[in-house]
């Protein structure tokens, strides 16, 4: 099982790379699950509605007033991604109503976290030969929706499904030890990422992604990649887990930490 998280910042720029990688992975007989973000579209809808929300450590502090706009933006993203994959001959199963993620209230209004993942509908879609396309929000036991960081959702889904590989497609070449100096991490370790995180090396938007990478490898995912979703070869390299690769993207392999899956 391979889980791919498509960053909302790519806004269609990764369509060819994503579709090509998904097709090749499926040809090899590996099931694929796709989780997507939607930050830019959410921001636009909120601006149009005159709503301003702060970010804390890279997480949007969502309110009840804002939540309908968040849900609408994510549903729109989900539909567009599903249609794009379908155009390339990839059969999809759209999950756009928060039905996969059980959310929990963490005291940040409607910004929640993952309490559990409902794996049965996802596994059923995979078993039918389709690629699940999952929007990153969830509902609590009462059915109330919560906005959840898409990187966190992808990490929890990869864990729940027992995925071998988790790939983050974003708008930068990977995780940087020092972004201003262009010091890109290629093969890294959990220990190194934890040290850089504590040292404040990452900008706010990268903090939840690094935490999601760490969560995945610490809970059984064997390999996690962060690559530029617009770079077709980098996306293919990550999706296939190529050991022989060019200097692109960041990879953390669990075996380097003494972790088995």
From TrEMBL:
Gene3D superfamilies associated with the record: Acetylglutamate kinase-like
Presence of keyword Kinase: yes
GO biological process: L-arginine biosynthetic process
This protein's record includes keyword Protein transport: no
Top EC class of this enzyme: transferase
SUPFAM superfamilies documented for this protein: Carbamate kinase-like
Reactions catalysed, as given in the entry: N-acetyl-L-glutamate + ATP = N-acetyl-L-glutamyl 5-phosphate + ADP
Pathway linked to the protein: Amino-acid biosynthesis; L-arginine biosynthesis; N(2)-acetyl-L-ornithine from L-glutamate: step 2/4
EC number: 2.7.2.8
InterPro entries given in the database record: AceGlu_kinase-like_sf (IPR036393), AcgluKinase_fam (IPR004662), Asp/Glu/Uridylate_kinase (IPR001048), Glu/AcGlu_kinase (IPR001057)
Protein name according to UniProt: acetylglutamate kinase
Residues in Aspartate/glutamate/uridylate kinase domain copies: 1-228
An annotated GO cellular component: cytoplasm
One GO MF term: acetylglutamate kinase activity
């Amino acid at each position: 099982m391979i889980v791919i998280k498509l960053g909302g910042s790519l806004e269609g720029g990764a369509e060819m790379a994503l579709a090509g990688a998904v097709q090749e992975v499926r040809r090899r007989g590996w099931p694929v699950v796709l989780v997507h973000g939607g930050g830019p579209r959410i921001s636009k809808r909120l601006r149009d509605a005159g709503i301003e929300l702060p970010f804390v450590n890279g997480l949007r502090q969502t309110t009840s007033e804002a939540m309908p706009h968040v849900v609408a933006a994510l549903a729109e993203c989900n539909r567009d991604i599903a249609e794009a994959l379908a155009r390339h001959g990839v059969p999809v199963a759209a999950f756009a109503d928060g039905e996969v993620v059980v959310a929990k209230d963490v005291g940040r209004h409607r910004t929640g976290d993952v309490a559990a993942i409902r794996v049965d509908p996802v596994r059923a879609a995979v078993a039918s030969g389709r690629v699940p396309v999952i929007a990153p929000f969830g509902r609590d036991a009462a059915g109330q929706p919560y906005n959840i960081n898409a990187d966190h959702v992808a990490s929890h889904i990869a864990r729940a499904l027992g995925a071998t590989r988790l790939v983050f497609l974003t708008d930068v070449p990977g995780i940087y030890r020092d972004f201003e100096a262009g010091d890109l991490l290629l093969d890294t370790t959990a220990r190194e990422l934890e040290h850089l995180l504590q040292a404040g090396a990452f900008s706010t938007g990268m903090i939840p992604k690094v935490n999601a990478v760490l969560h995945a490898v610490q809970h059984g995912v064997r390999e996690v990649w962060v690559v530029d979703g617009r770079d077709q070869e980098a996306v293919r390299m990550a999706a296939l887990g190529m050991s022989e690769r060019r200097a692109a993207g960041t990879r953390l392999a669990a075996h380097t930490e003494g972790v088995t899956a």
